[in-house]
From TrEMBL:
Gene3D superfamilies: Cytochrome c-like domain. Residues 1-22 form the signal peptide. It comes from Ancylobacter polymorphus. Residues 146-170 are annotated as: Disordered. Residues 38-141 form the Cytochrome c domain. This is Methanol metabolism-related c-type cytochrome.
Length: 170
């Protein structure tokens, strides 16, 4: 292969890698959906935001559940507080499965001078039944696709949503 072609390919790879670093779960574009929950090409949950700002149902639920369960420590809109780090920053380096693992099992930063403890939510249905919604909301915030505050418009509730939520909450 001519050297110049090789260099062009290498340059292309650098661009691809730096794009991937910004969202460790990969390209957030919605590739498929199951009853209103969108997935990217790798199968990770993702958001879908129309040009007019209307968010998918799960992103709007994620905002509400984040606000109810995480804001007290992680601050409004995922921006962090004196109690806990910014999650819009955290999702620049944590991928979907690492996020799920941390929320399920918790985390304690033993090297910090203060005792910073992330509780384990694995047995809390009010968090775990909505964990994909919380993830897609924070993914949209971290990617810069969604601004601060409650999304003004949401896609309608998917047909099977209420039954699934009831079954999960038990
Ligand atoms: C009682 C306070 C508290 C609540 C409530 C809380 N967190 Fe945390 N969280 C923390 C602290 C403190 C850390 C930092 C722990 C560390 O660095 O060891 C943390 C860390 C995390 C991390 C890892 C960040 C990183 O960079 O590794 C994620 C992800 C996370 N929290 C998600 C959530 C989500 C989602 C919720 C709501 C369902 C939530 N947290 C609720 C206190 C909290």
């Amino acid at each position: 292969m001519p050297a110049r072609t090789g260099a062009a390919i290498a340059a292309g790879l650098v661009i691809l890698i730096s794009t991937a670093l910004a969202d460790p779960s990969g390209d957030p574009s919605a590739a498929s959906s199951t009853d209103g929950l969108y997935s990217d090409a790798r199968g990770n949950p993702t958001y879908r935001i129309s040009k007019d700002g209307t968010v998918d149902w799960y992103t709007s639920i994620g905002y509400l559940r984040y606000t109810a369960n995480c804001l007290q420590c992680h601050g409004p809109d995922g921006l962090g507080s004196s109690f806990a780090p910014s999650l819009t920053d955290a999702l620049q380096s944590l991928n979907y499965s690492q996020f799920i693992d941390t929320v399920t099992n918790g985390k304690q930063n033993v090297s910090a001078s203060q005792d910073l403890v992330m509780p384990a939510f694995g047995t809390n249905p009010n968090v775990m039944c909505f964990i994909d919604a919380i993830f897609v909301y924070l993914r949209a915030r971290s990617d810069g696709a969604l601004g601060r505050g409650q999304p003004a418009n949401s896609a309608p509730r998917p047909a099977g949503y209420t039954a699934r939520e009831d079954a999960c909450l038990g």
